[in-house]
Design goal:
With 164 residues, the chain is an alpha+beta fold. The protein contains four helices and five strands; from the N terminus they run ααααβββββ. The chain has a five-stranded antiparallel sheet. A hairpin with a 2-residue loop joins strand 3 and strand 4. The longest helix has 9 residues.
Length: 164
């Protein structure tokens, strides 16, 4: 019986997660803890001294030269960037926001985003359906821009130093 108790004790070296999940009486020590989808999601919550800890600045620190230097500088200075995005047939629009995270594939996370984009609408013209473009604007709290849709990244006009 004592072996079964240790298998359900979250702090025991003999803890059995499968048995704990199947047991109707076993409750987590912190009932208000939010569940995660996978174990990798917890790596950011580890203490920095842990060998599996991955700091958020790992990619930014490893960039020394090349096109990602601009992203590194914008990330470290928390400055705004302008991102031109594309869709299948051309330029989709532009996003301006503060760079929060990026990776080597140019996937970007922006905060306090102002987005201006075009939408292709079907309309009637002379009895036939003809496409027309409509420009739209929206404000977003946070936005993930997939690297395959990024055309250009530059500093936002407000963040650029004035040239004399």
């Amino acid at each position: 019986m004592e072996g079964a108790g240790k298998a359900l004790d979250f702090l025991s070296a003999f803890f059995n997660p499968l048995e704990a999940l199947q047991s109707p009486t076993c409750l987590p020590p912190v009932p208000t803890a939010r569940p995660a989808d996978n174990l990798h999601a917890f790596r950011r919550q580890l203490p920095p001294s842990h060998p599996d800890y991955i700091p958020a600045t790992a990619i930014a620190a490893s960039v020394k030269a090349g096109p990602l230097v601009l992203l590194k500088e914008a990330f470290s200075e928390q400055s705004s960037v302008l991102v031109i995005t594309r869709h299948r047939k051309g330029i989709r629009g532009r996003c301006t926001g503060t760079l929060v995270a990026f990776d080597k594939h140019c996937n970007l996370v922006l905060r306090d985003v102002e987005e201006e984009y075009t939408v292709l609408l079907r309309g009637e013209r002379g009895g036939r359906s003809a496409p027309r473009q409509e420009r739209r604007r929206r404000s977003l709290g946070q936005l993930l821009v997939h690297g395959s849709s990024v055309v250009l990244v530059t500093r936002a006009a407000a963040a650029l130093p004035r040239q004399a």
